[in-house]
Design a protein that fits this description.
binds S-adenosylmethionine, Rossmann fold, OB fold (Dihydrolipoamide Acetyltransferase, E2P), metal-binding, 14 helices, MeTrfase_TrmA_AS, U5_MeTrfase_fam, 23S rRNA (Uracil(1939)-C(5))-methyltransferase RlmD, 7-stranded mixed β-sheet, alpha+beta, single chain, 24% helix, 21% strand
């Protein structure tokens, strides 16, 4: 049962202070924006509801791309190996900027594939290996910053770009190298003009494998044979050479592979896949033409069944490593029937690019791994088609109206491209789609509030994108990895869009978090509900509540729900969402979970159940200590980072809790990310 609900537990005025729509409107009036049009009513699903949604994109570790010759790259890209280890990102948002230092070749006019190849050959030629050469332990498990990722790939990638990627697949098919997938569809020979058939990965595959007696004797460039034991948290194959861990992108559990050593560290080696000697039955051809270039999806080369098994193993490994629980029972990962087209949101960097002999064009995409160059991901196969279409329309309108962008041609294009590269310009296009409502929310992130030609922009976008329910500018003057700045100005339509999950309707401001994969979100929340096993008498805290979605899902089964969220607009949305769904036992508070929960506990609140769904960084120590002091009967931990999950659980296990169940849920198919719902209860003896 829950505790005292005396006045001292009532939130302070400051806590209650929400940035209401009214206040926001007032602020915006000052900035000269038009008042928002009346909110549209939700439309029927319109066929979009069968696809799911979202996933965060992993952050890339700087300079961690494997080295190899062009031929090696072709081979390994086809085998899914041309990617560096990447850490995941937080909250489903991909950082606005590249996470690695600008490479020396960034100014050259090369395609991503060419530039990648160049870097590879430089490394093989003995160029210093970038990235972690400090001998520090493998950083991939450390829960890197935010990321939202969208891999790419559909039909519209620029021909030259896709040709390069396709040629990788073609080259691998030409080699007959054992174990590599045959292309599922024919690749035109013209796609790779002048490319010779694969000739042994620059000699690496043909070279005899090195077999030094000791892992310490392994040198850069050595080719070693490794049996892959598991998939790592960044989607890489993990094996051992003379008992030293080896991380090999593109290798799959139980495969025996030849790999060329790229980095040697005290505790691990990084190596590049050059040949699969024994192939996994889970190996498939990655369908996306920019797989291995854009970096959004890490495990497209693994069958979906294989991905679900790999994700379970990632969770198991984390608990074993960080919580000393090697025989923890983990339920099979809950997957999707159609693990594509699922993301409901895209956040794409945008630039105006010079096209030889013609007008400039607008490119929107993700930063190529290890570079400042944007990879065009139009047609991305994990984005919902409605999102892809909306991005295309927005690009077309920006181009047609010659709206300035904050970035010129990242490949060092013409300086005479009008209006390119200005602070007044658009930096990022954010499109969110309501799978049930059919609405599209468009937000343009700019560095200053004075984006020119706003009236024309509104008019053209309304015409081109009739399903657009609201258009906003978000002003972010800072060069940080975060996409959004703190100020959002509504230019037209609703300040917040609506969508629904099950029978709940939600209002979503541009900056507010909403799960990216709606189909899987319902499974996730149902898992939480079943785990909480509420009887109607409990006080529940929904920490890190976003727009209140989990709390509102649980509210009909609880006596009281209190949500905590740091983003003011999300708290305002959550409050509105409680009202519009008639959940009058749910209240939402603005603040940091690690500040508010201890304060409430100090004031006497004793929640029966605490649910926490933090960003990838996991739970703050103060929050964990408060759980141990407040002693809820149940703690339901929804986590998108198995490493921080296991580390946080260890603190609770040491403090008198035990794990009742762990249910991985695949929110982000084709990526190495995995969500898990872990239920902790007080040990009998600790009660
Ligand atoms: C992974 S999202 C989960 C949101 C929500 N539970 C859902 O399912 O949509 C994490 C949320 O935590 C919020 N957040 C981040 N740091 C926080 C903190 N220190 N205290 C409270 N909320 C925080 C973010 O703004 C985001 O809305």
């Amino acid at each position: 049962m829950s505790e005292h609900k005396d006045k001292s537990t009532t939130p302070s005025r400051k806590e209650r202070k929400l940035l209401t729509a009214k206040e926001e409107k007032k602020k915006n009036r000052g900035s000269g924006k038009k008042p928002a049009a009346p909110k549209r009513s939700a439309k029927p699903a319109g066929g979009a509801s069968d696809s799911a949604s979202a996933g965060s994109r992993p952050a890339q570790a700087p300079g961690d791309r494997p080295a190899a010759s062009g031929a090696q790259r072709r081979l390994s890209a086809a085998a899914g190996g041309a990617r560096g280890a990447r850490g995941p990102s937080a909250g489903g948002s991909r950082p606005a900027g590249p996470r690695s230092a600008k490479p020396a070749d960034a100014g050259e006019r090369l395609t991503p594939a060419e530039r990648y190849e160049k870097r590879q050959s430089e490394r093989v030629a003995g160029a210093p290996v970038t990235g972690s050469t400090s001998g520090k332990p493998y950083a991939g498990d450390k829960g890197r910053g935010p990321t939202s990722g969208q891999p790419y790939a559909g039909g519209k990638v620029k021909a030259a770009r896709t040709a390069a990627a396709r040629s990788q697949v073609q080259a691998s098919a030409d080699t007959g190298a054992q174990g590599l997938p045959k292309p599922a569809r024919p690749h035109s020979a013209a796609a790779a003009p002048g490319k010779k058939p694969y000739a042994g990965a620059g000699g690496a595959a043909a070279r005899p494998a090195a077999s030094p007696a000791d892992a310490e004797q392994v040198k850069l460039g050595d080719v070693i044979v490794v049996t892959i034991k598991r998939i790592g948290i960044n989607g890489e194959g993990v094996g051992y050479f003379r008992r030293k861990a080896v991380f090999i992108d593109g290798a799959i559990t139980n495969e025996v592979v030849k790999a060329e050593v790229l980095e040697t560290h005290e505790k691990f080696l990084k190596a590049k896949l050059v040949e699969v000697e024994k192939r996994s039955p889970d190996r498939v051809e990655p369908p996306c033409p920019v797989f291995g270039i854009c970096g959004g999806c890490q495990i497209q080369h693994i069958s979906y069944e294989g991905q679900l098994r790999a994700k379970l193993e990632i969770v198991r490994e984390a608990f074993s490593r960080y919580a000393n629980l090697s025989d923890l029972k983990i339920k099979p990962t809950l997957g999707m029937d159609h693990p594509w087209d699922y993301r409901n949101k895209a956040q794409l960097q945008v630039e105006r690019r010079d096209v030889k002999g013609s007008k400039s064009e607008i490119v929107a995409g993700l930063y190529e791994i290890g570079s400042h160059e944007i990879v065009d991901i139009s047609g991305c196969p994990i984005q919902h088609p409605q999102v892809n279409r909306a991005i295309d329309r927005v690009k077309a309108v920006l181009g047609e109206l010659n709206i300035p962008l904050s970035k010129g041609d990242s490949r060092g294009g013409r300086s005479d491209i009008k209006d390119s590269g200005t602070r007044k310009g658009v930096r990022t296009i954010v499109v969110r789609s309501g799978f049930q409502s059919g609405e599209i929310q468009v937000t343009l992130v700019t560095e200053t509030a004075d984006l020119p030609r706003q009236e024309e922009l509104i008019e053209r976008l309304r015409l081109e994108l009739p399903e657009m329910s609201g258009l906003s500018i978000n002003v972010n003057p800072l060069k940080t990895p975060l996409i959004f700045g703190e100020r959002t100005i509504s230019l037209w339509g609703s300040e917040a869009m609506s969508d629904s999950l099950g029978d709940l309707n939600f209002t979503l401001s541009p900056r507010a978090f909403f799960q990216l994969n709606p189909e899987q979100t319902i499974k996730l929340y149902e898992t939480v509900r079943a785990a909480a096993a509420l009887t109607g008498k409990e006080t529940v805290v929904d920490a890190y509540c976003g727009t209140g979605t989990i709390g509102l899902w649980l509210a009909p089964y609880a006596a009281e729900v209190r949500g905590i969220e740091i983003i003011p607009e999300a708290v305002a949305d959550a409050t509105r969402n409680a009202e519009q769904n008639g959940r009058d036992n749910a209240t939402f508070f603005e603040g940091e979970a690690e500040e508010l929960l201890p304060r409430w506990a100090k004031d006497g609140l004793r929640p029966d159940v605490i649910v926490a769904d933090p960003p990838r960084t996991g739970l703050d120590r103060k929050f964990l200590e408060t759980i141990l002091r407040a002693k809820p009967k149940k703690f339901v931990y929804v986590s998108c980072n198995p490493s921080t999950l296991a580390k946080d659980c260890k603190v609770l296990l040491d403090g008198g809790y035990e794990i009742q169940s762990v249910q991985p849920v695949d929110m982000f198919p084709q990526t190495s990310q995995v969500e898990a719902v872990t239920v902790l209860v007080q040990k009998e003896t600790a009660k």
